[in-house]
Amino acid sequence: MYRVEGNIISSEIASYLAPPVRQLLLGLDEQYCNRMEEIRLRCQQPLLLKLGDRDFTITPSGRPATDLYSGYIVTREDIQRSLASISDNSLYAFEEEIKRGYITIPGGHRVGLAGQVVVHNGEIKTLKNFSSLCFRIAREVHDCALPLIPYIAPRGVPVSSLLISPPRCGKTTLLRDLARILSTGRANLPARNVTVIDERSELAGCYLGIPQLDVGSRTDVLDGCPKAEGMMMAIRSLSPQVVITDEIGRAEDVAAISECLNAGVVVIASIHARNVKELENRPLMQDLMKMRAFRSGITLSRRIHPGNIEETIRWQA
Amino acid sequence: MLWLKTIGIVLVMTGFGSWGLNQARRIRSRVEQLAGLRLGLNFLLKEITYIHTPLPQALKRTAQFSAYPVSVIFKEVACCLEEKQGNTASEAWQKGMQKLSFYSELTLADLELLSTLGYQIGMSDAKEQERVFLLVQEELKLLEEEAVKACESGQKLWSYSGFVLGAVVVLLLI
After folding, report:
1. Does A2 map to a domain?
2. Does position A3 have pLDDT exceeding 50, yes or no?
3. How far apart are CA A21 and CA A235, in angstroms?
4. Kind of pairing, strands A219-223 and A194-198?
5. pLDDT (tens digit per residue) in A52-79
6. Residue A315, phi-psi category: left (phi > 0), alpha (psi -120 to 50), beta (remainder)
7. CB-defined contacts A:B, below 8 A
8. Which domain holds residue A105?
9. ipTM of the assembly?
10. N or C terminus of chain A: which is more exposed, having fewer CB within 10 Å?
11. Is A161 in the same domain as A111?
12. Lowest-pLDDT range, A234-243, B84-93, B133-142?
């Protein structure tokens, strides 16, 4: 399913890594780089790279290896230098992002942060003494959502739909491509105004507010915006025909989805669950069922490839 | 022979006199540079705490705002960071300080104070940045006050002592 792209690691990621780690990655064969999903730097632990379900490392001599303890050991300095590059030596400019636990870099790649959490009055104030970084590589896979279109937009008219899967099954990539397809339009699928509520900056990969990934020409992005508030803002000011958002799961999301549906806006969202049965046991989903919020549900897995359609379900209106 | 002696006297007097005047100018310049540095840091602090401008751009703007030679440090650090060669702000700051020490009249004590800022710059939240900047600015103010006092007493001393020393040398040679 995944389209082989140029070497994103060397063109978009390497410059944000500490020089020793950068050198190791730049020496890596392109076939590894093209399939890489995550780069994990943990203090005093081997450098870890994720290719699909496989973990591997790079030895200090630059050879890829599956025995993690033969790999290059990441130092505190590597973490500090990488963090300095990611934040452009300006941690103060990313206070909100650090509170949320990640920084998005140009290209829409998200760097997850871990370290000592500073809590004040029960609220996370900041993170300090960073101990690990997780680069999640955002890949655009144009047209990967085409197999979903017959379920999401039967007869060319989008219906409110839910993508159901455990983490790392390609929900975000599919939602991004759905935004692009619905916003651009195709034969028998007229283009629509789409608003993406991108609470975690993963869908559009905004950097300084500008989407770095292709979400279509009729798409507005509310970056870093809480989903429920974002949906209400979009209805009030952006007149969307379709709202797309990632990982619904809070009680306030239900109320906002209800508002969208009452305003005639189609909601396409994703939710964490392994299958429809598991989903229907969740109290939140029971509320949504009662509301008859979603018409179509698609269960995804990575059994054959990420974004593999396992099951489709049509709920009665 | 008399004309040769006259030329010698003039040269010795001019040489020692210029040296004295130059020393006096350096004392005066140090005061101006410390004040300029304090202003520059204040400008940079505003960029960091109010506008949250990323450090390379904030430093570039501060360099444009500051007068030479104080602008040298901000310009050098901004250039170093923009190269994106994996340099941390602390390393870039040290490079900038080396360049500043070459072009300015700042003393070792002034530069040591500035170097403390290098360990913190950019790599904490805005409140922490403000705390560090204000601390360094306060210390700079104290150094500036000392420099003003040193300038008041030392400037005249150096201006005259060059010529006096020149005259002594002339008398000894004659």
Report:
1. no
2. no
3. 45
4. parallel
5. 778 999 999 989 999 988 999 999 999 9
6. beta
7. 59
8. 8-136
9. 0.78
10. C
11. no
12. B84-93
pLDDT digits (tens, 9 = 90+) for B36-57: 999 999 999 999 999 889 999 9
For residue B140, give both structure tokens. Answer: 């700079």
Share of residues in chain B with pLDDT > 70 (%): 100
Residue A42 backbone dihedrals phi, psi, to 5 degrees:
-120, 130
Q: Evaluate whether A119 touches A129 at the Cβ level (below 8 Å).
A: no
Q: Looking at the structure, tell me whether residues A13 and A56 fall in a common domain.
A: yes
Q: Which residues pair with A297 in a beta bridge?
A: A162, A313
Q: At A228, which CATH number?
A: 3.40.50.300
Interface of B with A in 38-97 (CB under 8 A): 48-49, 52-56, 58, 81, 84-86, 88-89, 92
* Domain count along chain A: 2
A112 in a domain, yes or no? yes
The reply to whether A130 and A279 lie within a common domain is no
Which amino acid is it at A93?
Answer: A
pLDDT at A20: 93
- Of A136, A171, A195, which closes a domain? A136
Q: Do B122 and A84 touch (CB under 8 A)?
A: yes
Q: Which residues contact B35 (CB under 8 A, 6 or more apart)?
A: B144
Domain-located, residue A141 = no
Task: Say how many CA atoms lie within 13 Å of A49 toward its Cβ.
Answer: 23
Q: Which of A136, A166, A188 is the last residue of a domain?
A: A136
A214 in the same domain as A108: no
- Report chain A's mean pLDDT, rounded to a whole number: 88
Alpha-carbon gap, residue A18 to A28, rounded angstroms:
16
Q: Which residue from B52, B88, B125 is facing A89, i.e. has the nearest CB?
A: B88
